[in-house]
Amino acid sequence: MLNSLSGRFLILTTVFVMLAEVLIFVPSIARFREDFLLNRLERAQIASLALLADDMLAEELEAELLENAGVYNVVLRRDEMRQLMLSSPIPGQIAQTYDLRMASAWVLIRDAMLRLGDRDNQIIRVIGEPVRDAGLLIEITMETEPLRMAMIDYGLRILALSLFISIITASMLFLAVRALLVRPIRSVVGYMQRYANAPEDARGIISPNASVTELREAEDALLMLQTQLTHALKQRERLAQLGGAVAKVSHDLRNILTSAQLFTDRIETSDDPLVRRMAPKLVGSITRAVSLCESTLAFGRAEEPAPTLTMVDLRDVIADVVASEALAVGDAEIEFGMEIAEGMTVRADPEQLFRIVMNLVRNARQAIAATGKPGTILIAASQSDEEWHIEISDTGPGLPPKAREHLFTPFQGGMRKGGSGLGLAIAAELVRGHGGDLRLKETDRTGTSFDIRLPRGDETF
């Protein structure tokens, strides 16, 4: 219990209340000592009034008055004259003199603490002002033992009262903390444990209801975390299922395309000029499709094949991409442009570079076609001493905010309705495999531009 939040709060509350009581006790005991001495002065003054009323008092009556006042003698100064009013034998010498007329709070506290710590019974002289202006000053001598015992008794009563107050206060705070903090925290922990044991169970998702602002913020944060994690787990499960399905489809599709590839080999021997001219492109497309199926199978095993780097004629690769996408334009008014120097070569895997550029160009073509307006797609390339840059820009409608937020995330960064968002994710992964970087350069209502950066490094092969 002591290691719990409420237990420690109980201990701290008790300690702090006792500390506060100590700070109250010190001036209180000093005040008690001052009142005790003033009371003795007042009682001594009352006893001296009997002498003023009757100049001759019996020794027995005088001794009784002094005993009732708790002093040994009384000196009263009236009209600048110091007069010994009552007296009795003093059992010792006067140890100290205390003047209460001008004593500061610090002096009263200091004298009270010293008196509590001093066990010796001493004779002291106390000076004060008479009540009701009965003189200039009154002076008494008395023992310190009754004063010290009265202070100890008062201190014990204060201590008992302080302990009682601290226990009641700490108990009330203990119950309040358990109701306002501990129970809501345990509820949050319970939700966390249930969710950890069964993330798919919706009953483990917290329903924020705390009235304390900080706890409500914690519950809201936990709700957001659980919601996002649940979505991610479901997405991961769907991806795993999709990966298995794609792997199966790719396996069978690869076999079908392999058979088609055998037929295209025979088409190349045709005497028809048109067939002979189109056959290489058909062969190239089927070869890429077979390669893509094999890569998809590898992707289903959570690994993209490492690129086979060679020096590739960039203009040839881009021309193949443009020729392939131009066939898919249909009725749309889309123009393709290339700004690539003749003979410019880059270090890349030709098949993977084709896939990278094709995904970006296809996204641009589909975005322009969706608007129903004419558009242009431009592929430009440049180079520096450190890297090559391939920029694909279009005059489409730009990327929506959601697509920009999850641009390279599979199944979340789709740029059109119904899109899977795999194109950019695959392109980014292939570029990283080359040691490069794919980034969104700019996007607005006038179009979008992507920049592919490939490091040059050692170009000797």
Report a brief summary of the structure.
The chain has helices at 5-53, 59-69, 105-117, 145-197, 213-267, 273-300, 314-327, 350-371, 401-405, 422-433; strands at 73-78, 81-86, 94-99, 123-128, 137-143, 310-313, 334-339, 345-348, 375-383, 387-394, 437-444, 447-455. It is of the alpha+beta class.
Protein topology:
Layout: H1 5-53, H2 59-69, E1 73-78, E2 81-86, E3 94-99, H3 105-117, E4 123-128, E5 137-143, H4 145-197, H5 213-267, H6 273-300, E6 310-313, H7 314-327, E7 334-339, E8 345-348, H8 350-371, E9 375-383, E10 387-394, H9 401-405, H10 422-433, E11 437-444, E12 447-455
Parallel strand pairs: 3-4, 7-9
Antiparallel strand pairs: 1-2, 1-5, 4-5, 6-8, 9-10, 10-12, 11-12
Please describe what this structure looks like.
By secondary structure, this protein is of the alpha+beta class. The protein has three domains: 5-169, no CATH class; 202-237; 305-455, Histidine kinase-like ATPase, C-terminal domain (Heat Shock Protein 90). It is 57% helix and 17% strand. The chain is built from ten helices and twelve strands. The strands form three sheets. It has a five-stranded mixed β-sheet with strand order 2-1-5-4-3. α1 packs antiparallel against α2 (59-69), α1 runs antiparallel to α4 and α5 (213-267) runs antiparallel to α6 (273-300). The protein is rod-shaped, with a radius of gyration of 49 Å. This is histidine kinase. Residues 248-458 form the Histidine kinase domain. The chain crosses the membrane at residues 6-30, 158-181.
